[in-house]
User: What shape does this take?
Amino acid sequence: MLPTVAAQCSACEALTDPGRDLALITPNICGSDVLRLQKELAQMDFYNGKIDGVFGPKTEQAVISFQRAKGLTPDGVAGLTTQETVANSASSMTAKNEVPPPAGKVDLLIDTRSRVLTVLDNGEPYRKYAVAVGKRKTPTPIGNWQVQRKALNWGTGFGTRWIGITVPWGLYGVHGTNKPNSIGSYASHGCIRMNNINVEEIYPWVQADSRIIIIGNPFTYRAPNFRMMRHNERGSDVMEIQRLLQRYGYYDGPIDGIWGGGMEKGVIQFRKDKGMRYDNAVDNEVYKAIGI
Assistant: This one.
């Protein structure tokens, strides 16, 4: 995810624990969480060193300066409280630019690869925000969706705003978070996390007819890549197989990402027509034959 950081700091990994404390230790802590911290501190003029994702002496001094300015214990350790304060302060500074609401129809575009949410105004990029998306074991659903419901203070862990998405196989949404240090990473159970101040900004812009467009590769953005699938599987990769089976005349059911009886029959018939052994699986043979 951060090859330049990995090259400089081979003893550590890119962000694997969104909740970890960041401090000056040997070997240096490095990863996307450090990179984000440096960017946010630099945005507020607390950090003027190299933004490289490595927690070195300059980063520690910037953290101490920030902690003193905010009345926090100036220990140089960016724990949960410090990271949350940094994230909220940086977001507040951005929000103070008094950007007017979009003039046209608002849609949201979420890129699971860059972990960026773009607000579209009549199809044109209007504002961008860093977000956290689903882990590979619990990926964010890729596809073209719409807003299902909106709510204030929806529940513990969901921050101050909830924007539900019309995904047929589960409960997913764009929401705030009580873990701002996870922003920019693969950290959620499939939802899209934003800093509270950012989701509060876009919340009134998003309407019932707003589209939620989530992009990425549904076959590689999960563990394992190109998984073997059978009856009752659910997900964006199932939905893409449904589309292809429908294109080739093997499926006439809903494109909903839920493997039911109709898809089961289509997969079995497709395998038979392609001369494969009898099975109900979407495996490497099927992926190749269907054109993936």
Remarks:
- Residues 115 and 131 are 5 Å apart (CA to CA).
- The chain has eight helices and ten strands.
